[in-house]
Design goal:
Elements lengths: L4 E3 L1 H10 L7 H7 L1 E6 L4 H15 L2 E6 L23 H4 L6 E6 L2 H4 L3 E15 L16 E4 L4 H11 L8 E4 L2 H9 L5 E5 H10 L4 E17 L4 H14 L5 H10 L3 H8 L9 H8 L2 H25 L4 H28 L5 H16 L1 E10 L4 E9 L17 H9 L3 E4 L8 E3 L2 E3 L3 E9 L2 E10 L5 H20 L9
Parallel strand pairs: 1-3, 2-3, 6-7
Antiparallel strand pairs: 4-9, 5-8, 5-9, 10-11, 10-16, 12-15, 13-14, 15-16
Helix pairs in contact: 3-10, 12-13, 13-14, 14-15, 14-17, 15-17
């Protein structure tokens, strides 16, 4: 296999003259026999391995250039980064680079300078010295602290925006270093925290469990991808195909992730599904796990691999055994929820009408949340009214929609539907509601009114009375189900008489 050759920045300048303002389409790349790869950042070795794999996928040799500075990826023709301006970044415009494989966060200002092709989701995470775990819980706690982050990254941008808004009176002191040095400074207490993507957070914290701790997520979920020229449509399609090919256990990128982060790409895909704003990436999971019968087994295998790896770490890091056991318990619970959500997703794809949808959903919720009674109401698009489509009572009796004769919740339902607010009533008073069954009747431990939204619009209402208190884990479960329920409601065909 031919070895990649390296270009100097002087060579880039020469290439700029050879390719004035032209994108190198896939046909040109194949004719030249080389893919021009431009690397930046602390993880350049990891990015290079993935980009060379892409070159092999295209059947060309990799031509690798290492940029002197991360920000050069976004420079205009004058060598400046102008976030608010729209232009094609210099090295893509002049043909010096075909691809920036540097796992770029796809924020709006970067999209105005290149085509970004996504392949995974992430979210910014705060990493701090483990001694600060009890002090730092949310962004407002970062005021007046010292942060170390890599210059020019979205992490630095987020901190500067934080200083201009909620921390304007007590800003973070921002120091810029390469990522490895930032982590070293946090571990040594020369800085108090850093901000990094979830995938890299696994690597750094696992590598120094005595000093580092992964605390809490900040900012919105963001797509991560590679940058190419906006006009390189054939190259874009090939890159999408390359990413799709690598979303399987044992692929080159799957193994590269394992080596870089201590978690494979496919294992990370399972974790990151919970980060998606629209819930699980159902199509990606079903594509990987096809046929459907193998889906649950695939999930269980990945979870077993994850759990086994954590067990090995517990044995190796005895001084942090308690913390790891706690993390393992949380992970096991989250893994069980992922599997439960996967099963429900498959079942909902097979329903024939809105009433069957409500029945399948309530049966699933009854098992997971120990429901005594429940009602699913769906907004009829023809009348814009919420209409009950399924009821559940523990022994099979009819349930009455909350807010009607037996529920006596009064204005709570109206408030829930009007404001979109989730309403939880723990240990409700006797007058609110009583669960009847063949064994007698009792008051529920929790009543939850949960408005389900799809693209910001109310599409359904879950009215749930549980025999056990619905705790934080139960509410998290409902929140993660919401986008799936909303998507399913919109996907069911509403015939004129399908809701009565």
């Amino acid at each position: 296999m031919p070895q990649p050759f390296r270009l100097t920045l002087l060579t880039i300048a020469a290439l700029a003259l050879a390719w004035p303002g032209e994108s190198r389409e896939l046909s040109v790349i194949r004719q030249s026999g080389e893919l021009r790869i431009c690397l930046a950042g602390t993880s350049a070795g990891f990015y290079q391995a993935n980009a060379e794999s892409f070159a092999r996928f295209l059947g060309v040799r990799p031509a690798v250039t290492t940029l002197a500075d991360w920000d050069q990826q976004f420079h205009d023709h004058e060598g400046r980064t102008v976030a608010e301006a729209t232009y094609v970044t210099r090295f893509l415009a002049d043909g010096s680079c075909d691809v920036f494989p540097n796992d770029l966060h796809m924020v709006a200002w970067r999209r105005s300078k290149m085509e970004l092709v996504p392949y995974y989701l992430t979210r910014k995470m705060v990493v701090a010295h483990r001694d600060l775990r009890g002090d730092l819980h949310q962004p407002s706690d970062l005021g007046g602290r010292i942060a170390a982050v890599q210059k020019g990254t979205s992490y630095e941008g987020w901190l500067r925006k934080l200083n201009e808004t909620i921390l304007a009176a007590n800003p973070v002191r921002i120091e810029t270093y390469p990522t490895a040095e930032s982590m070293k400074r946090v571990a040594g207490r020369h800085a108090e925290f850093t901000v990094i993507g979830a995938e890299a957070g696994f690597k750094w914290v696992r590598g120094d469990l005595d000093n580092l701790d992964l605390l809490f997520p900040v900012d919105d979920v963001v797509e991560v991808g590679w940058g190419i020229h906006p006009a390189a449509t054939e190259l874009r399609d090939s890159l999408r195909g390359f990413f799709a090919e690598n979303k399987r256990v044992g692929s080159e990128m799957d193994r590269a992730w394992q080596k870089q982060y201590g978690i494979s790409l496919m294992e990370y895909q399972l974790f990151s599904a919970s980060l998606a704003e629209d819930g699980l990436d159902i199509q990606a999971i079903l594509t990987w796990a096809a046929p459907i019968g193998a889906g649950a087994a695939g999930l269980l295998i990945a979870m077993a691999i994850w759990t086994r790896r954590l067990n090995r770490e517990i044995a190796h890091h005895k001084r942090t055994a308690a913390a790891l056991q706690e993390a393992q318990a949380i992970l096991a619970q989250e893994s069980a929820q992922r599997l439960s959500i996967s099963h429900l997703t498959v079942n909902l794809q097979q329903v024939r009408d809105i009433h069957e949808f409500g029945s399948v959903l309530l049966s699933h919720l009854a098992r997971e949340l120990s429901l005594g009674m429940g009602v699913v109401c769906v907004k009829d698009p023809t009348s814009d009214q919420l209409v009950p489509v399924a009821q559940y009572a523990g022994t099979g009796g009819a349930a009455t929609a909350f807010g009607e004769a037996e529920a006596h919740l009064g204005s709570l339902v109206e408030r829930c539907t009007a404001t979109g607010e989730i309403i939880v009533v723990d240990a409700p008073e006797r007058r609110h509601f009583r669960i009847r069954s063949g064994l007698g009747n009792c008051s529920p431990a929790s009543i939850v009114l949960y408005p389900v939204k799809h693209k910001g619009q109310l599409v359904a209402l879950l009215e749930l009375a549980a025999l056990k208190t619905i705790d934080d884990a139960g509410m998290t479960f409902l929140r993660e189900l919401e986008p799936i329920i909303g998507f399913a409601v919109r996907g069911v065909h509403f015939a004129e008489d399908s809701i009565c």
